Amino acid sequence: MQPLAYRMRPRTINEIVGQQHLVGPGKIINRMVKAKLLSSMILYGPPGTGKTSIASAIAGSTKYAFRILNAATDSKKDLQIVAEEAKLSGTVILLLDEIHRLDKTKQDFLLPHLENGNIILIGATTENPYININPAIRSRTQIFEVTPLAPGDIKQAILTAIDDKQRGLGELPIKIDEVALNFVSESTNGDLRSALNAVELAAKSTSPDSEGTIHLTLEIIEECLQKRALTQDKDGDGHYDVISAFQKSIRGSDTDAALHYMARLLESGDLQSVIRRLLIIAYEDVGLANPPVCQRTVSAVTAAEHVGLPEARIPLANAVIELCVSPKSNSAMVAIDNALTDIQSGHIGEVPDHLRDAHYKGAKALGHGIDYKYPHDYDNDWVPQQYLPDLLKKAQYFDAKGNSNFEQKIRDQYKTLKKAQNSGH
């Protein structure tokens, strides 16, 4: 009767879905397991992203005993039982869920066991550990962030679960439509637990058709997820079409269209796509024309992440409306892309000698840093000197558009400095 998500937990780190920045070959947790040099850690990130899975996989890979407790609901006595087990049988890996709610009494009991290595603590939390976890625990742990899984990772995990005859649904004659698979992979916002639970409910509550096949359609998956595929079409591309229309509506300053497309994304539960896209839009399409709205967009996105849906719609709506009515400029994006074009084309050149690092023995003999002019020693803390390599000393990447008073000031100052710089050589 255990849920599919529980049964499909990875047994070793090689079976972990996603989080390759931590468990992939050569990455930190993979190295710890390979060297059998585990240290206590805190894993923080959204629900369903693999914190418990990573802990159980570490235990499975190292063959250490594995215990799970909850910092909020389990008592000091429960911790004492784990500590006694560690004394008798050796190292125990303890997954402590909701570690941000660990009180001082339990903490004081736990700390000596962390220091002597009897207990390898893996704390799990959805809260920011740098803010919500006691410094005494933080100082004895490494902190790793886990991120929402990509749709491709979730899709592969679902297919694995459908095929697995021992732990998964492989004994059932399941056929899942591609559009349904794409929908459950994309609309669960990186939460693999929710995706697997929905697929299991769909599979076990759907009667076989005339050919004996359990056919999972988009409509069945929608019902089991309780989300409507408003952003899907029969080819699975509609989701990305709506995201594209969302950005283009803001770029085109159509407030009502932007709110419409954001509402479609939010109604389908795709909060993460809205958040990612708004951050991109703020700096790509508004940018230097209105820097304060970029900062306020970051604040709105942060608030939305904290409160979640449905309340997240409120700060996000504020950001969308302000982005729409704001003046627009992509001059910063164009500037960095112009610079990257030179780099990618091989137009790089040598760093001028007077700008090179002079903080080592022998630098002077090489002529490094000798003729550098320290701007703060001059009037207005500025002095003309060459900064670009000789090959690129005439390059100009930035072309401000002047679509707002702020950007006009930036453009004028840029041109003034550039003219003075060029005339000074």
UniProtKB/TrEMBL annotation:
Q: Which GO terms describe its molecular function?
A: ATP binding; ATP hydrolysis activity; DNA binding; enzyme activator activity; single-stranded DNA helicase activity
Question: Would I find ATP-binding among this entry's keywords?
Answer: yes
Which domain of life, per UniProt? Bacteria
Gene Ontology process terms (BP): DNA synthesis involved in DNA repair; DNA-templated DNA replication
- Which SMART domains does UniProt cross-reference here? AAA
Record keywords, A-Z: ATP-binding, Nucleotide-binding
Gene3D superfamilies given in the database record: 1.10.8.60, 1.20.272.10, DNA polymerase III clamp loader subunits, C-terminal domain, P-loop containing nucleotide triphosphate hydrolases
The AAA+ ATPase domain extends over 37-149
Q: Give the record's family classification.
A: Belongs to the AAA ATPase family. RarA/MGS1/WRNIP1 subfamily.
Q: What is this protein called?
A: Replication-associated recombination protein A
Naturally occurring in which organism (per UniProt): Pediococcus stilesii
